[in-house]
């Protein structure tokens, strides 16, 4: 009897999860249940699974609302019916079509209208819903006549009084209003909860036709959908499976010849093996569509990186989808695709952030907007938003809302309203708040994608389905991950800039320079990698130094062991030890020596689990992958894991291995598998890291300019400007006669771009350079104002940053000139005012400026000094007793250093939070510090700037870190621009920043906690 049920996917309306909704229906003896969330089908597939687990017949529909007003309820007779509803909602969400008061002529859908929106006549598939509390209204003649077309309408929205209150809070949040200001139309009736079916039927006992109509809809409706009966992606790239395989084989063999020559038998055999599996699993079209997208990208000269488990495939390598050779790195195809794998794999393809939208446009155009959409994702209420939103509904003032949102629960004061905010706020945890776009997952379907979901159009401009990637996988839609990153933008832009500036063509994909190059290896070994994708963070640079990383293979390993899970398992620390002391350990079993010698017998990659499962345990590669997957992922099943474990030990016994040995092998797999990283993924990262490093080594200024223009990576712009300066660049502030929107390079001179002036409109920033290109250099401030439509505040910013220094006039004089030119200025009178009424000649007394005024202007406008270093602004002339270049000599000795703060990272420990700092000394060299909680309590960080540091040097495998005992922030000179305003003399100092990052991982385990044997285990 329940034709209109809401889950909490009726955003900011329903209060029941899908599981709870179905569970309650079961408790009340319901045999059929209709899910009709408001204007969405987000939950229909989860709903079907939940119903079938409780023996309830699932029926699906949608409650159609317009501007919070119920129009009608649409119930699908069968799966085709939901497609009709989806297309109507999609037209509204994506094309701006209006939802009409009455339903369109659906073929496979029942329609139920409320009394408040009763049409004059009802079609055969249309009914009028009557609530129990509306039965008395049936005495009216106009309604009595319509009883033959009526059904029982008993909506379900909540289950308890508390949930009803929560529903009202959600409605207040949705309307951005107070609970006290809600009116009756804003929230549901107090009767919208489950009741025994017989109780509802008894209420309508005098109207058997209404009961019969209701049952008719329940009997004639259903959700006839089979989840993984077939893959629902686009079936064929050509016109048939046979032609797809023919084309894939042709392309694979052409690539095989290009990559390996004509006589590599091992590569040919592997290609044949993979093609056979791809054909059996009907994956040819998936490979070909990915290849097609790459081909389009290549025609435009775009760089891409194919990474993830797809790089385990030689066919991917031959097709140019990836640039990782799986034979060279001993990568297992079974990690990507095997006959036992039920969950579909996907390719992860990265493009530059500048090019991704063009790739997406191609996909939507080539494969049809009816068949392409992004995966959606549910954005849940978050801690801060929960208390802020709930508190706002209760009418709390902004100051109190800020406290609730930013401080921990223990710091909230106790009163009745705050207790209610806590009580109801905690109920909202895990509630979906809004739908958004998956960051990269694209679906390309064979049938129209609206067969499966209504589409929505988020602000980014590409349609999304109303379910997430997990549901997509469940129903047989395999996604293509089309990603973007700034690292590729940096590499691509650098290659173009080198060609433009130097006339040199750099083939950055040449493996002789993108995998192993002598000078690059020297930079790697000492961690000179700032600006380089994935290997520039303090932690990564420290790891490279500890490993003296001097080759591509070690870089691949470093890219994996730096991952939080791997490091947390202790494998990182053990790997560093064995890498530096290869003579101080034994392989505890020959299988580890034979198959993991590259990583000193340590499982560093996911593929290593498969290797050990195969060569020690005797499992097939496919079964080894099952073992790996059983131990990883968020939703691993304990029952499935036990089954895999039993299979592993049974197989080990058949191999004749002693039980104690097998237990140790399994313990190592178990401690690692859930945290491991795909080797192909690491290799892809390593190649891109190496490409960016090569450019940094040989073309440092071009590279750093492009890092700045791609808005950097781990650090703020100031750090990359410092790197450019250390590479011999002459750094210049923005100039209207030399700068463009982005930062530019002229020989050795780096002109910072207008993009760094936050108060300058992007439109104006572009116009300055474009007008200069059209009509030549600006001759004066007056000439500039005549040609660029600009106001006094923006002109002042340009003057203060020195953008008119070509005039030779001091800033004071330029400011007065600008004000005289723009006094009483109106845009429409620009030409007349400036040409017909020239500014009178005047002479100013000579106005002296302190040499450091420019530096404080720079800090205020772009956040850091350009005309000098932060050290130059210190009151003290002391520059430290020890410098970075000598730190290795001071192991276990106390040092005193003066340093400028670059970044700090927070790490929780059992004794409190500790910090890791990164600094530069007066010579511009980087070093790292560790700050323990007891030291921080007395000597805390106090924001960006220079500090005096006292600490003990600890050299850990070639990498010095200073454990800080004391530190003090050093005073800078007062701002000379405010010599007559004492209260403002230190305001700008606070704009010096440091990069702050946080981690919630626990400290890495100590050596004795890892428990990895360093000696051979005896049988």
From TrEMBL:
Keywords in alphabetical order: DNA replication, DNA-directed DNA polymerase, Nucleotidyltransferase, Transferase
Reactions mediated catalytically: DNA(n) + a 2'-deoxyribonucleoside 5'-triphosphate = DNA(n+1) + diphosphate
UniProt-listed Gene3D superfamilies: 1.10.150.870, Metal-dependent hydrolases
EC number: 2.7.7.7
Domain Polymerase/histidinol phosphatase N-terminal: 1-68
SMART domains recorded: POLIIIAc
Pfam (any one): HHH_6
Stored PANTHER family: DNA POLYMERASE III SUBUNIT ALPHA
Name of the protein: DNA-directed DNA polymerase
Classification of source organism: Bacteria, Pseudomonadati, Bacteroidota, Flavobacteriia, Flavobacteriales
């Amino acid at each position: 009897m329940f034709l209109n049920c809401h889950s909490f996917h009726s955003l900011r309306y329903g209060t029941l999860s899908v599981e709870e909704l179905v569970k309650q229906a079961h408790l009340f003896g319901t045999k059929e249940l209709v899910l009709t969330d408001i204007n969405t089908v987000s939950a229909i597939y989860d709903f079907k699974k939940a119903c079938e687990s409780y023996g309830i017949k699932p029926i699906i529909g949608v409650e159609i609302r317009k501007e919070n007003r119920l129009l009608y309820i649409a119930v699908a007779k069968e799966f085709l019916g939901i497609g009709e509803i989806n297309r109507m909602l999609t037209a509204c969400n994506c094309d701006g079509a209006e939802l009409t008061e009455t339903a369109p002529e659906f073929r496979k859908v029942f329609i139920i209208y409320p009394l408040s929106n009763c049409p004059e006549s009802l079609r055969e598939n249309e009914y009028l819903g009557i609530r129990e509390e509306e039965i008395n209204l049936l005495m009216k003649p106009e309604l009595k006549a319509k009883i033959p077309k009526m059904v029982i309408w008993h909506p379900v929205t909540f289950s308890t009084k508390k949930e009803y209150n929560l529903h009202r809070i959600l409605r207040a949040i949705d309307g951005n209003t107070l609970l006290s200001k809600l009116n009756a139309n804003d929230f549901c009736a107090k009767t919208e909860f489950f009741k025994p079916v017989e109780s509802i039927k008894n209420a309508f006992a005098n109207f058997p036709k209404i009961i019969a109509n209701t049952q008719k809809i329940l009997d004639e409706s259903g959700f006839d959908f089979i989840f993984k009966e077939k893959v629902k992606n686009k079936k064929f790239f050509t016109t048939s499976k046979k032609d797809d395989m023919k084309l894939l084989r042709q392309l694979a063999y052409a690539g095989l010849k290009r990559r390996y020559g004509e006589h590599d038998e091992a590569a040919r055999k592997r290609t044949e093996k993979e093609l056979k599996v791809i054909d059996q699993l009907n994956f040819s079209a998936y490979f070909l569509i990915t290849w097609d997208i790459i081909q389009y990208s290549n025609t435009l000269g775009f760089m891409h990186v194919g990474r993830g488990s797809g790089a385990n495939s030689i066919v991917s390598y031959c097709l140019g989808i990836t640039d990782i050779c799986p034979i060279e790195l001993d990568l297992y195809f079974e990690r990507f695709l095997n006959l036992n794998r039920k969950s579909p794999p996907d390719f992860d393809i990265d493009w530059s952030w500048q090019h991704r939208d063009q790739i997406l446009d191609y996909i939507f155009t080539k494969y049809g907007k009816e068949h392409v959409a992004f995966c959606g994702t549910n954005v849940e209420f978050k801690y801060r938003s929960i208390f802020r939103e709930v508190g706002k509904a209760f009418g709390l003032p902004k100051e109190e809302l800020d406290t609730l949102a930013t401080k921990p629960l223990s710091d909230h004061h106790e009163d009745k309203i705050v207790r209610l905010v806590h009580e109801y706020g905690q109920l909202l945890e895990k509630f979906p708040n809004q739908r958004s776009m998956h960051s990269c997952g694209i679906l390309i379907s064979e049938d129209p994608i609206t067969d499966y979901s209504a589409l929505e159009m988020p602000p980014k401009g590409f349609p999304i389905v109303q379910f997430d990637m997990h549901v997509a996988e469940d129903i047989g839609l395999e996604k293509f991950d089309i990603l973007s990153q700034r690292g590729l933008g940096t590499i691509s832009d650098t290659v173009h800039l080198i060609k433009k500036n130097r006339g040199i063509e750099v083939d950055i994909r040449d493996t002789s320079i993108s995998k192993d190059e002598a000078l690059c290896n020297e930079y790697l070994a000492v961690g000179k990698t700032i600006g380089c994708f994935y290997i520039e963070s303090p932690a990564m640079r420290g790891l490279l130094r500890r490993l003296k990383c001097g080759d591509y293979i070690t870089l691949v390993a470093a890219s994996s062991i730096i991952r939080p899970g791997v490091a947390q398992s202790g494998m990182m620390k053990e790997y560093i030890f064995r890498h530096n002391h290869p003579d101080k350990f034994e392989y505890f079993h020959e299988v580890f020596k034979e198959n993991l010698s590259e990583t000193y017998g340590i499982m560093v990659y996911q593929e290593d689990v498969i290797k050990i499962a195969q060569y020690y345990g005797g499992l097939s590669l496919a079964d080894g992958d099952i073992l790996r997957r059983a131990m990883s992922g968020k939703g691993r099943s304990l029952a499935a894991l036990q089954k895999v474990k039993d299979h592993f030990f049974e197989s080990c016994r058949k191999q004749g291995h002693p039980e104690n040995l097998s237990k140790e092998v399994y313990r190592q797999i178990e401690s690692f598998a859930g945290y491991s990283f795909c080797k192909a993924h690491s290799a892809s990262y390593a190649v891109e890291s190496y490409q960016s490093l090569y450019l940094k080594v040989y073309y440092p200024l071009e590279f750093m300019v492009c890092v700045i223009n791609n808005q950097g990576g781990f650090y703020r712009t100031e750090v990359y400007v410092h790197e450019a300066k250390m590479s011999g660049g002459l750094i210049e502030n923005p100039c209207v006669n030399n700068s463009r929107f982005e930062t530019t390079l002229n020989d050795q001179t780096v002109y910072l771009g207008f993009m760094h002036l936050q108060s300058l409109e992007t439109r104006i920033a572009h116009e300055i350079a474009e007008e200069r290109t059209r009509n030549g250099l600006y001759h004066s401030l007056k000439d500039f104002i005549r040609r660029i439509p600009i106001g006094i505040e923006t002109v002042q910013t340009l003057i203060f940053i020195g953008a008119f220094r070509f005039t030779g006039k001091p800033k004071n004089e330029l400011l007065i000139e600008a004000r005289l030119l723009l006094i009483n200025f109106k845009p429409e009178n620009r030409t007349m005012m400036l040409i017909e009424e020239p500014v009178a000649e005047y002479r100013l007394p000579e106005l002296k400026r302190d040499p450091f005024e420019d530096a404080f202007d720079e800090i205020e406008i772009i956040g850091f000094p350009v005309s000098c270093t932060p050290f130059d602004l210190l009151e003290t002339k002391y520059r430290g007793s020890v410098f970075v270049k000598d730190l290795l000599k001071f192991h276990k000795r106390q040092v005193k250093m003066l340093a400028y703060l670059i970044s700090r990272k927070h790490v929780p420990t059992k004794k409190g939070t500790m910090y890791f700092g990164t600094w530069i000394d007066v010579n511009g060299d980087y070093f790292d510090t560790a700050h323990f909680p007891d030291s921080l309590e007395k000597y805390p960080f106090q924001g960006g700037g220079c500090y005096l540091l006292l600490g003990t040097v600890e050299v850990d495998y070639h990498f010095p870190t200073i454990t800080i005992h004391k530190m003090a922030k050093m005073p800078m000179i007062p701002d000379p621009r405010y010599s007559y305003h004492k209260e403002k003399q230190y305001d700008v100092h606070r704009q010096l920043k440091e990069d702050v990052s946080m981690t919630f991982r626990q400290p890495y385990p100590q050596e004795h906690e890892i428990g990895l044997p360093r000696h051979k285990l005896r049988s």
